[in-house]
Specification:
Blueprint (H helix, E strand, L loop, with lengths): L9 H36 L18 H9 L3 H14 L14 E2 L1 H11 L5 H11 L2 H7 L34 H5 L3 E2 H48 L1
Antiparallel strand pairs: 1-2
Length: 235
C-alpha cells in the first residue's frame, strides 16, 4: 500500500486505515497457516521414522513401512489420504502404498484430513491452511474489501436497500459458500511441497547432528585433559 497521505479527507484516511488493518490481518493469517502446515508436515514425517511393522492407525493394517515406500515414491500425502479414507470406510487396499490414487479434495474433506493427524489444530486453523495452499489468502491481499465486491448495489445508503441481510450473500474469505464448495486442492501439490521440505529438514538435521557430535567431542577432550592434569598432580 502507498503511504498515508495526510492531505486525504478524514473519510478517505479512515478507509485507508481500515484497509491497512484488513491486509495486516490477512498477512497474520498467512503466517499462522504456514506455521500450522509445518506442524502437519512434522507430524506426518514421524511415521517415516518409526519401525516398519508399526501401524499408522490401530484400526487398519497400514504400516509405517508402507508409508516409507509411498514416501520414497513421492506419493506420501496421497497415501496418507488413502489411510484417512480407509479409517472412515473401515478398509484400505493392501496395495494402496504402491500406487495411491490422486486425491483432489474440497475444504471440508481437507479440514477433516488435517484434524485426523493434528487433533490440536482447530477447524478455523485448518480452513486457513486450505485457503493458503489454494492461494486464496494471497489473492485477498491483492483484491478489494469484501464489502466492495458487490459495488454500490448493496450500499445501505441506497434507496430501497433496507434489508441487506436478505440480499447480500454471506462471505468467508471474500467468497460465497458455493464458491468455497467449488474449490479443490490437488494432493500432487502437497506431495511436491512435502518432498522438498523433507529433504531440507533431513539436511538441516544432519548439520545439527554434526555440530552436536563436534560439541560432544570437544567436551570429551576437555574431560580427558582434566583427568590427565589430575593424574599429574597426584604424582
Amino acid at each position: 500500500m502507498k503511504p498515508l497521505d495526510k492531505k486525504m479527507s478524514l473519510g478517505a484516511q479512515k478507509e485507508y486505515k481500515a484497509e491497512a488493518r484488513r491486509k495486516h490481518e490477512i498477512q497474520m493469517k498467512i503466517r499462522k497457516a504456514e506455521k500450522n502446515f509445518k506442524t502437519l508436515l512434522e507430524e506426518i514425517k514421524k511415521f517415516t521414522e518409526k519401525a516398519d511393522e508399526e501401524l499408522i492407525h490401530p484400526e487398519l493394517s497400514a504400516t509405517c513401512g508402507d508409508a516409507k515406500f509411498a514416501d520414497k515414491n513421492g506419493k506420501y500425502f496421497k497415501y496418507l489420504y488413502a489411510v484417512f479414507e480407509g479409517v472412515q470406510t473401515g478398509n484400505i487396499s493392501k496395495s494402496a502404498h504402491l500406487n495411491p490414487p490422486n486425491a483432489r479434495v474440497g475444504k471440508n474433506n481437507f479440514v477433516a484430513f488435517v484434524k485426523f493427524f493434528c487433533k490440536d489444530l482447530s477447524e478455523t486453523q485448518c480452513s486457513d491452511m486450505f485457503m493458503n495452499l489454494t492461494k486464496r489468502l494471497q489473492g485477498m491481499l491483492l483484491g478489494t474489501k469484501p464489502a466492495e465486491e458487490f459495488g454500490d448495489s448493496l450500499s445501505p445508503n441506497r434507496p430501497g436497500n433496507k434489508d441487506l441481510q436478505s440480499i447480500a450473500p454471506k462471505l468467508q474469505y471474500g467468497l460465497t459458500q458455493a464458491e468455497i464448495d467449488d474449490m479443490i486442492l490437488d494432493f500432487t501439490i502437497l506431495d511436491q511441497i512435502y518432498e522438498k521440505w523433507a529433504q531440507e529438514d533431513d539436511s538441516l538435521s544432519g548439520v545439527l547432528n554434526v555440530k552436536i557430535t563436534k560439541s560432544k567431542n570437544a567436551d570429551f577432550r576437555l574431560k580427558m585433559d582434566s583427568w590427565k592434569n589430575r593424574k599429574n598432580e597426584r604424582k
